[in-house]
User: What shape does this take?
Amino acid sequence: MYPTDSSMPPPPYPVPQHEAQSSVIFVQNPIVGPKSTRLICPNCRADVFTRTTESATAKAWMCSFLMFLTGLFCCSCIPLCMESFQKVDHHCPSCGAYVGSYHVD
Ligand SMILES: [Zn+2]
Assistant: This one.
């Protein structure tokens, strides 16, 4: 007979970090633009205007770093300011959930 010990905690299971790219699943992937967009939040179902935050893409940081390495110190900040290297992240103002990104390219 097996002892019915249900109070045992589950064994620690390491969450694979390198597979994060393929595990991003949206119930509803809203199309967002460069400006605040009205949509139904997929997380809290509220009818909201998204809160936008502009930031440089990973590509911009890569270009900047490469320019810095090749001696173009004064130009290395240019990719971070270029509009084509910017992305706009949209978040729900109600619950703060990430709802989508807009890329210029
Ligand atoms: Zn929300």
